[in-house]
């Protein structure tokens, strides 16, 4: 709550004193530098959603995963040949490659329109808004100006994501990590108005609740339990089966999710607990009865979540390819040893590097070069014999940034 108030306050202040604050997100951040940024993201996401119904919910989930782990810095997008990044951590079951593809496609289009300007972290936040809006939910002005992080670690994920088996205190702990409270938990859970889950996430509620063989979760309506048992047979379910979190209006962002909690038809334990735990019963009832209130609170909570641990100003970088950190070519520092008698040619860039997305002149980042095709992110690049130092970004082994949100 505090975080949300701060966001709103800072937005206001930032509007009044534009330019005097460099560390806050703002609406219309790309109005001058990339005027079509919003429409490019919108068009790409809509095309993705038309191609597959799982794209929308998956993009929404991608945004949450990114923000809950190490802040909204697109660290979830980084790939790594040895799999030591957030994307590969055990909790990634709910992430769909199609969501990553959609963000990467938006990035590709943006790099053509305005190279080196729009961060991947902002693309994810903007894409999430498009999804909600396209599924007939609310729309809002997305605050922008996030920069992309330089690190991503698989080990940073455990304990930071909301889980399907969490009770309210456990949810409060993970949401609290990024400054979110009880109202945010309930409002953001409303995103389960759309999307799907796998049998593995809820079969214990059907067959072995609390570890008791044969026990069914008493908070689950018996009729719905029977339906779900048919979809996910005990010990014999299809691991790829996708069960809608709200099967009544699965493709529509609305408050039916909350109405289903009132009749014991929440799919996950972490859904139903919002109605069972009397700390949040009232909020569930409010949202079930008043969709406008749900939309209003959901937007505020999305903005608050989107502010978690963001990098701004000169922190991080604007990645040229969301999957890898930029390779930095630093000019050599003032020489500490006498120059050699034979003069090596200080060629800054290998001549053969293709630059499909060369940084534009207006890029507000240090000089970068897109080493796209080779770019091994973990294995250090073989030393270049002459010329300036090529410093590979050791994003896997470096410690996480000191942002205190995760
Ligand atoms: C999830 O992690 C596994 C194991 O590292 C990996 O094989 C898979 O590609 C990841 N899923 C996504 C969508 O990245
Ligand atoms: C909430 O539930 C707890 C037990 O789970 C109970 O002790 C408490 O009295 C309840 N509070 C209200 C206001 O119903
Ligand atoms: C981005 O980087 C990934 C990983 O190195 C690579 O597979 C992909 O082709 C790159 N995308 C572009 C557009 O260069």
Automatic annotation (TrEMBL):
Ca(2+) 1 binds at residues 66, 69, 71, 73, 75, 86. Heme b binds at residue 192. It is an enzyme of class 1 (oxidoreductase). Keywords: Calcium, Disulfide bond, Heme, Hydrogen peroxide, Iron, Metal-binding, Oxidoreductase, Peroxidase, Secreted, Signal. It is found in: Secreted. Residues 397-406 have a biased composition (Pro residues). Substrate binds at residue 162. Residues 1-23 form the signal peptide. It catalyses: 2 a phenolic donor + H2O2 = 2 a phenolic radical donor + 2 H2O. The active site is at 65 (proton acceptor). It comes from the Eukaryota. PANTHER family: PEROXIDASE 55, PTHR31517. Belongs to the peroxidase family. Classical plant (class III) peroxidase subfamily. Belongs to the peroxidase family. Ascorbate peroxidase subfamily. This is Peroxidase.
């Amino acid at each position: 709550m505090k975080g949300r108030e701060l966001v709103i306050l800072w937005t206001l202040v930032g509007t009044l004193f534009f330019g005097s604050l460099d560390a806050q997100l703002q609406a219309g951040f790309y109005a001058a530098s990339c005027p079509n940024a919003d429409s490019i993201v919108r068009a790409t996401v809509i095309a993705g959603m038309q191609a597959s119904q799982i794209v929308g919910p998956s993009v929404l989930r991608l945004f949450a995963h990114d923000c809950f782990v190490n802040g909204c810095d697109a660290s979830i997008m980084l790939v790594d040949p040895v799999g030591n990044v957030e994307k590969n951590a055990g909790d990634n079951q709910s992430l769909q490659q199609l969501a990553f593809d959609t963000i990467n496609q938006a990035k590709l289009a943006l790099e053509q329109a305005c190279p080196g300007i729009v961060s991947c972290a902002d693309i994810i936040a903007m894409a999430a808004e498009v999804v909600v809006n396209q599924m007939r939910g609310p729309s809002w002005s997305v605050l922008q100006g996030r920069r992309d992080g330089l690190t991503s670690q698989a080990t940073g994920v455990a304990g930071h994501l909301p889980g399907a088996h969490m009770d309210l205190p456990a949810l409060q702990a993970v949401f609290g990590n990024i400054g979110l409270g009880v109202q945010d938990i309930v409002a953001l859970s409303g995103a389960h108005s759309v999307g799907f889950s796998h049998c593995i996430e809820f079969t214990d509620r059907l067959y072995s609740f609390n570890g008791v063989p044969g026990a069914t979760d008493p908070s689950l309506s018996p009729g719905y339990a029977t339906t779900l048992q048919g979809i996910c047979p005990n010990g014999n379910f299809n691991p790829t089966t996708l069960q809608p979190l709200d099967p009544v209006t699965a493709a529509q962002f609305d408050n039916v999710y909350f109405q289903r909690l009132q009749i014991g038809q929440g799919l996950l334990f972490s859904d139903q607990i919002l109605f069972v735990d009397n700390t949040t019963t009232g909020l569930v009832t409010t949202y079930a009865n008043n969709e406008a209130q749900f939309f209003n609170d959901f937007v505020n909570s999305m903005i608050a979540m989107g502010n978690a641990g963001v990098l701004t100003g000169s922190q991080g970088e604007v990645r040229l390819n969301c999957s890898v950190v930029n390779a930095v070519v630093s000019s050599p520092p003032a020489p500490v040893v006498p120059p050699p008698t034979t003069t090596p040619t200080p060629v800054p860039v290998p001549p053969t590097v293709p630059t499909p997305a060369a940084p534009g002149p207006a890029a507000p980042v240090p000089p970068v070069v897109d080493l796209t095709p080779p770019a091994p992110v973990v294995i250090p690049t073989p030393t270049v014999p002459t010329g300036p130092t090529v410093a590979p970004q050791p994003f896997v082994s470096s410690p996480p940034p000191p942002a205190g949100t995760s």
